[in-house]
């Protein structure tokens, strides 16, 4: 009770400050009063491509752009559409109007203003029940006449949709702003914002100088870096809340950046001379697109050592032609393979995250081709075929073609032909890889062939968690032993990045999207196959069958992904318990190949099948909150303990101790599948009795479906209630007792509390959450 009172007092004080300062002279009304309301109440839906009607409110330019009825995520379009990336594809109101965006700020009169009318509609119908999520309610009113129709037929579409209305003072603040003509930031604010912070200006200049050095080898490396970091929110340790984008500019960075807007980062820039520049991120950061990446003096020194430790030269720069630009193994074959692979390994979590978050906000195209939870390991660079043999590299690079070679518009009639070419190339590559493995590793892979992070890098083992159509990548082995596991070599890692990030166009047509998804299937199966190469040959086929159950899946594996190299030996030694070789292999990697600095701390909440060796048992300590949560973590949803089945994909558990700060845990529902071989019919291939929950402290999901609010003293009651869940009705009882309902008046208080907590405890990774999937009931 004391905490709630304090939180409310804090909220009230902030509110009163907003009201009292509203008419102060020289105040930047927009920056200090309007954008904070957008941040704290609107970005929960209105950001990135999945914003309803593409109305983005991350900054003033985005508000001015307005809305558009086009659904970016259209997996059925036969022709690609013009990109509509905020801050990139157009600038200024007139350019956006030409691209079909309409103004939502229709009048200075509040009663005739489209934007304000939707807010007031929610005020007038605060308790109206909703039955559909945001993605299923795309009604884009472009005029007040359209609004009148919506208000009459669907009053539940008031904003914020399905959430508590804005407070009277917030509405009043926005109404005041509208009547003033909805002005943007003051010129002095814009000028101040445009300046780079003094403490990092020197570093920015050094980086831009490095990126634009004239020798051909530098130009080629800069192109490689740009294509891998164009999604990064780059920051410097001296100013961790300032983020920058790496862009290509027609003008010198110091003369003002004029970004070159191409569909993909590996498209021809269209000018002979351009510059790589750091452009300050212009809007509020949201978690679903936030992929932070640190640059500092040590990183710059690392790049110089990494790419130029050995001598190499560039005779001619690669072109941007099809067949070259889309294939990094050809475009960058003059850069030593080891440098490229080590670059990826150095920050593996970032690079894997790009295909999860990518340029698309949610990754349904790629994400429904992966398991709900799996570990990722990497092949030791000294054991990679491409590093061991220049001849092999040359033979392989042409076989590693990807769908991006055909662009964003692939004729539907050509799709089967192109698919066959992809499969044929991939199968020839698998055979080539196996033949060379026999030459280079006749005894098979052993434990030393797994990269151990050079004993210091915590990117050596990652865990991917999928939450329906989005996912997150964590460092370390998080959650209990996963059903499958990846081992990625350089070729797999690079293809993953280029297929799903660099070459992928969310505005492309159905065939482009389909072939991208199918090729991701191929990458996944190869990564799983490489893990199996460390297990006894006689067991590999059994594991494949367990991972791909069902007649259709087995047929696909037989005819499209036949076994190759399944009889090759392994250099890893296992004990007599042949049923647990996968478990043994993972434990060998985590506890014998990696040290604590690399693998991270033990997951004492979730590890149950995974067992810590006796020699490390003294480090295994679990008590308090973690001991209580362990009772519901990693419990299979069998008939006697089915509770995991009834939880949503992702929830947050907010625990309030008697004294001190809150603790926030991510509660992840791992849904098991019989197989993930097909794009459609996923619900028909589930294995719900294998489901489980993973709990991990921190903010590990952008799209929460529920927030549970539990006092620490009541945590045993919460855990006991979870264990007793046998039906959907029982789960709803848990929500009634501990859940934060989307319609309850205190919803925003809980949301604000968590927002402030993450800002305070994890400023680098902080981003506003997306509430478009929050539970309806």
Quickly count the domains.
4
Give me the count of strands.
12
Strand order, largest beta sheet: 3-2-1-4
- Fraction of residues in H or I helices: 25-40%
Strand content: 5-15%
The main sheet comes to: 4 strands, mixed
Mean pLDDT: 92
Terminal Cα span: 26 Å
Strand-pairing-aware structural class? alpha/beta
Integer-rounded radius of gyration: 27 Å
User: Number of DSSP helices?
Assistant: 28
The residue ranges in which pLDDT falls below 50 over 5 or more consecutive positions are 1-25
**Tertiary shape:** globular
Structural description of this entry:
With about 775 residues, the chain is an alpha/beta fold. It has four domains: about 1-185, no CATH class; about 195-315, no CATH class; about 360-600, no CATH class; about 620-760, Nonspecific Lipid-transfer Protein, Chain A, CATH 3.30.1050. The chain contains 28 helices and twelve strands. The strands form three sheets. The chain has a four-stranded mixed beta sheet with strand order 3-2-1-4, covered by helices on one side. Strands 7-6-5-8 form a four-stranded mixed beta sheet. Strands 11-10-9-12 form a four-stranded mixed beta sheet, with no helix packed on it.
Q: Topology of this protein?
A:
Layout: H1 2-20, H2 29-42, H3 60-65, H4 93-98, H5 114-124, H6 144-153, H7 168-179, H8 187-194, H9 198-211, H10 216-229, E1 233-236, E2 239-249, E3 275-280, E4 292-294, H11 297-308, H12 328-331, H13 337-346, H14 348-356, H15 364-367, E5 373-378, H16 385-388, H17 390-397, H18 415-440, E6 462-467, E7 470-475, E8 485-488, H19 490-502, H20 510-532, H21 537-547, H22 551-559, H23 581-593, H24 596-599, H25 624-629, E9 650-656, E10 663-670, E11 692-697, E12 706-711, H26 715-723, H27 728-738, H28 747-761
Parallel strand pairs: 1-4, 5-8, 9-12
Antiparallel strand pairs: 1-2, 2-3, 5-6, 6-7, 9-10, 10-11
Helix pairs in contact: 2-7, 11-13, 14-19, 18-20, 19-20
């Amino acid at each position: 009770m004391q905490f709630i009172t304090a939180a409310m007092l804090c909220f009230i004080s902030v509110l009163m400050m907003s009201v009292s300062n509203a008419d102060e002279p020289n105040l930047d009304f927009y920056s200090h009063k309007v954008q904070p309301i957008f941040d704290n109440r609107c970005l929960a839906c209105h950001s990135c491509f999945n914003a309803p009607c593409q109305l983005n409110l991350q900054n003033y330019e985005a508000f001015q752009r307005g809305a558009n009825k086009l659904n970016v995520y259209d997996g059925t379009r036969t022709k690609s559409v013009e990109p509509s990336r905020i801050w990139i594809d157009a600038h200024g109101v007139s350019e956006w109007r030409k691209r079909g965006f309409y103004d939502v700020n229709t009048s200075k009169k509040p009663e005739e203003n489209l934007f304000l009318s939707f807010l007031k509609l929610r005020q007038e119908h605060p308790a109206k029940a909703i039955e559909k999520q945001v993605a299923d309610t795309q009604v884009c009113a472009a005029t007040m006449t359209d609004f009148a129709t919506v208000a009459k037929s669907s009053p539940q579409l008031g904003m914020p949709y399905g959430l508590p209305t804005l407070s009277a003072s917030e509405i009043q603040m926005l109404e005041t702003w509208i009547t003033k003509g909805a002005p943007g930031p003051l010129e002095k604010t814009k000028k101040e914002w445009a300046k780079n912070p003094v403490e990092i200006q020197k570093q920015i200049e050094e980086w831009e100088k490095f990126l634009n050095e004239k020798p051909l080898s530098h130009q080629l490396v800069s192109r490689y870096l740009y294509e891998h970091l164009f999604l990064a929110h780059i920051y410097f340790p001296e100013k961790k809340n300032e983020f920058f984008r790496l862009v290509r500019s027609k003008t010198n960075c110091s003369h003002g950046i004029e970004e070159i807007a191409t569909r993909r980062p590996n498209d021809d820039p269209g000018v002979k001379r351009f510059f790589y520049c750091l452009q300050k991120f212009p809007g509020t950061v949201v978690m679903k697109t936030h992929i932070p990446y640190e640059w500092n003096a040590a990183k710059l020194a690392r790049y110089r050592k990494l790419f130029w430790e050995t001598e190499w030269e560039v005779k001619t720069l690669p072109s941007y032609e099809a067949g070259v630009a889309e294939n990094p193994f050809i475009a960058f074959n003059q850069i030593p393979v080891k440098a490229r692979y080590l670059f990826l390994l150095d920050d593996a979590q970032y690079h894997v995250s790009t295909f999860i978050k990518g340029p698309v906000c949610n990754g349904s195209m790629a994400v429904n081709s992966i398991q709900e939870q799996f570990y990722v390991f990497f092949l030791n660079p000294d054991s990679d075929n491409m590093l061991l043999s220049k001849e092999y590299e040359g033979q392989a690079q042409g076989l590693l073609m990807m769908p991006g070679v055909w662009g964003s518009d692939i004729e539907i009639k050509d799709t089967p032909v192109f698919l066959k070419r992809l499969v044929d190339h991939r199968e020839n590559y698998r055979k080539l890889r196996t033949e060379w493995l026999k030459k280079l590793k006749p005894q098979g892979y052993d434990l030393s062939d797994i990269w151990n992070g050079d004993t210091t890098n915590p990117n050596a083992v990652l865990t991917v968690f999928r939450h329906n159509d989005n996912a997150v990548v964590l460092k370390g082995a998080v959650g209990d032993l996963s059903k499958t596991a990846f081992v990625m070599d350089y070729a797999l890692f690079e293809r993953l990045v280029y297929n799903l990030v660099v070459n992928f166009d969310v505005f492309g047509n159905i065939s482009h999207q389909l072939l991208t998804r199918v090729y991701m299937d191929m990458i996944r199966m190869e990564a799983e196959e490489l893990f199996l190469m460390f297990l006894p040959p006689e067991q590999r086929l059994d594991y494949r069958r367990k991972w791909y159950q069902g007649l259709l899946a087995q047929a696909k594996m037989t005819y499209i992904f036949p076994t190759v190299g399944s009889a090759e030996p392994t250099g890893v030694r296992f004990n007599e318990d042949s049923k647990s070789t996968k478990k043994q292999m993972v434990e060998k990697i985590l506890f014998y190949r990696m040290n604590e600095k690399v693998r991270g701390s033990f997951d004492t909440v979730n590890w149950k099948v995974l067992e810590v060796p006796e020699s490390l048992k003294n480090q295994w300590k679990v008590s308090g909150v973690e001991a209580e949560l362990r009772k519901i973590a990693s419990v299979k949803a069998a008939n006697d303990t089915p509770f995991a089945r009834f939880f949503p994909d992702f929830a947050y558990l907010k625990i309030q101790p008697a004294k001190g700060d809150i603790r926030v845990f991510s509660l992840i529902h791992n849904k098991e599948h019989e197989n993930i071989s097909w794009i459609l019919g996923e619900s028909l291939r589930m294995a719900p009795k294998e489901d489980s929950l993973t709990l991990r402290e921190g903010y590990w999901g952008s799209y929460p479906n529920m927030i549970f609010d539990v006092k620490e003293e009541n945590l045993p009651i919460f855990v006991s209630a979870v264990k007793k869940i046998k039906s959907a009705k029982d789960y709803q009882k848990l929500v009634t007792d501990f859940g934060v309902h989307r319609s309850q008046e205190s919803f925003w208080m809980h949301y604000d509390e968590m927002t402030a907590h993450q800002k305070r405890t994890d400023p680098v990774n902080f981003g506003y959450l997306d509430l478009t999937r929050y539970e309806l009931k």
